[in-house]
Batch of 3 targets.
Target 1
Amino acid sequence: MEPNAIKNMVLIFCMIILTVLFFFCIYRAIRGPRYSDRLVANNVICTMSVIFICILSVYLKEAALVDIALIYTLLSCLSGVVVCHVITLHHKGRLLNQKQKEEEL
C-alpha cells in the first residue's frame, strides 16, 4: 500500500470518529440538565468542528480551509464569552429577585 493511501484512510477514519462524537455532543447540548453542561457541549462541538476542518484541509490539500478554521475558532471563543456573560447576568438577576422577595417577607 502507498503511504499516501494509508494517510488518506487514517484521515477518513478520524473524520468518521469526530462525526460520531459530534452527535454525542449535540445530544448532551440538547439534553444537558444545566446551562453549564450545555455551554461545555457547545464549546466541545466548536472545537471538534475546527479539528474536522483542519483534518479536511490536510485531506483535500487546501490551505484556505485552515484560515476558515482560525476564523471559526475566534468566533467560537467570542460566542463562549458572550454566553458566559449572559448566563452570569441572568444568575445575578435571579439572586437579586430572591433577595427582594425575602426582604418583602
Note: The chain has three helices and no strands.
Target 2
Amino acid sequence: MGIPHLTRHLLPYAKDVLLAGEKQREGDDSIQLVVIDGPSLVYHVFQRLLSNSNTKLEVLDAQPTCDEVSLGVMVYLLQLKLLGVKVTKICFDGALPITKRKIRLCRLEKSRKKLEQFHLQNRLGFAKPDDSIRSTVDPTKVLQSRVIPIRYNGLPENPFMVSTVFEDLRKRWNKANILMAVQDAFYFNHCEIGEQDFPWAAITVMVPGEADAECARMSRLTGAAVLTNDSDLLLHDLGSYGSVLFLDSVELSEWDPSRPTDSKVKARRLCPASLSRRLGIRSVRYFAYELSQNPQFGLSELIRRSRENCDFLDLAPDYQHFLEDYDYEPNSRAIAQHPQDLDPRISEIFLQFLRFGYMGEAVSWADVHLCAQIHAVLYSLRILKQLLGLVTVTEEPVLRLKSEIAALPPLHVMMRPRREMTREYPEDSSVEKALQRFFLLSGQHVQSDDEMQPPYFSPEGSALQHQGSPKSNCVKHVHRSKSNLYEILSPE
C-alpha cells in the first residue's frame, strides 16, 4: 500500500526518462529493461480506462469490465514491446503471509467503505444499460493521463480483474488473439510481437507473498526499472542501479496509430541509491521511517532527522520491525514451486490446506473455515447449474459450461459431515498425499509409481525434475478420468 505522502515528498527529485529500446533523442535517458508490479499495473489501467469512460454511461456501466482491463493491460505491454522495451518479469501476489493480516484487513475495510458509500449515493438503483455506446481500447486510453469524471469518483474496482489479467497473460493473449483484438486500433508489423506465441506467458509469475520483493530482486540483479505505483519499492534493496518508474507518471505522446513505433513514452524515474546521496542520508529507509512516525513534518525536517537519527535508529527495535517487510527476499526455488495456475485467493486456500487441512486429534477453526469455504464454492456451482437449467440457450460457451458442471454430485454428497470425511483418510494419510492423488488423477496422463510426487514439492523441499529420469522405464499405469472432486480425492 505504501507509506502515505512518501511519493509526494520524493517525486520532485525524479528524473524524466524515455521508455525506449534505444536512445531516441540526444540528451534523453532511456529505460530499456523493466520488471512490472502486476497488480499495480492492473489497478492503474483500470483507473485510466475509467477516466476515459463515456460520461453518458450509467455509473454502474462505466466500471471497466474484466475483459476491458485485460485488453488494456495487453495493449500497454504491446506498446512497450513495439518500442523495444524488454519486460523481464510481471509479478503477481500469491498467498499473503500471516504477518500481512493487518494490511489485508485494512484493504478489505477500505473496499467495504467504498461499496457502502457507492450504495448510499445510488439508493434508487440504475437505468437500463445503453447498448448503443461502444468503447474501444488503444494505447491512448492506457498510456495517457486524464482526470476521472466527478460522477465516477469512488466507483469500486472490479474484484476479479487482477485474477483475470494474470490468467489471460498466461493463457489468452497469443499472437492470434492479440492481432484480432487490436486490428482496428493501430497497425504494426506482426513480426514485432516476437517469436513466442504467448509473448508474456513465461514471464508472468505468481510469487509467494507480495510481488514487491520479487520485483526488487529482479531490479537488483538486472538493473531493471520497476514499473509500479507502490512507493514501498523505494525501500527495498534495488542495488546501485535499480530504480522505480511510477505508473502515474507514464505518458504517451506523438501517437499515430499507423506508426506506433514512432511514438514517445515518458516516465519519471527515482533511483533510491542516487536519491540517498542527493539528500545526504545513508538510505531512503531512514526518511520513510521518520515520515511514518512524523507525518506532520516538512521535507527539510524529515531530511534533518534522517541524517541525525540514523545511528540511533539502527539499534531501535521499532525501526528493525519496520524494515522486516523490505528485507524479505523470496527464494527463486520457492517461486518455481509456487502453484502458477491458481487465483491469489485460491492460492491462499491451497497453502492453508497444506498447513491445516487435516483431521487430527483436535480440529481447529482453520479446519472449520476451510470446510465452509469448500462448501460455499460447491454450492455456488450448484446454484449456477440450476439457473442454467431454467433457460434455453444455444450459445456454445454456455452449452460447454452446462456440460462441465453437469457432473456435480447431489447435495447430500456435497455437504457431508466431517466425521464422514475423516473416515475416508487413514490416520497416516497426509494432506500432501491427498494433493498428490488429486494432481495425479485430475491430469488424465500416465505416470510411473516413482513419479507420484506432487508437482510443487518433493520430500526434500526442492523442485521436481521429471525429465530424463532414469526411472522412466518403470511399469506405468493408466488412471481413468474422474467425474468430480469427490471421486478424485476418495480412495480407490
Note: The longest strand covers residues 86-93.
Target 3
Amino acid sequence: MTTTSNNVGGCVDLVSQMQFELNRMSELFLSTVGELQRDAGPVPVNNEELIRPTTSYDSASRSKGFALELMQASTNMTLMISKLPTPMDAEQDQLARILDLQCRNIQLEKELEAEFQRAQQKLAQAQDLYGLLAEHELNSHMAMKQ
C-alpha cells in the first residue's frame, strides 16, 4: 500500500482517539455538574435561616480537581486536532492517490490483456489438439469396424 493509505489509517485512529477524549470530557462535565448539584449547600428562600449540615466533603477543592481534569482533556483534544491534516493536504493526498490508482489500473489492464492473449492462444492450441484427437479416434474407430 502507499503512504497515503497509511495516513488515512492514522487519521482514522486519530479520530477514534478524539471521539474517546470527547466522551471522556462529556463524562467529566456531567460528573462535575451532577456531583456539584448533589453536594451543593442549601440556598435560603425568603430570608429564612439555614441550618448547615455538617459534611466533610469539600466541594471547592473537588470542583478545582474536576476543572483540572477537564482542562487536561481539553488540551489533549486541542493537540489531537492540531495533528489532523489540513483540508488542502487531504485534497492533494487524494489527488495523488487517484493518479497512483489510475496508473496502477492502466498497468493491470495491460497485464490482463497480455494474459488474455496468452490464454486465447492456449485455448486455440487446446481446440486444435482436441480436433486432432477426435479425428484420430474417429479414424481408429472406423478402421476397427472395417
Note: Residues 1-7 have pLDDT under 50 and may be disordered.
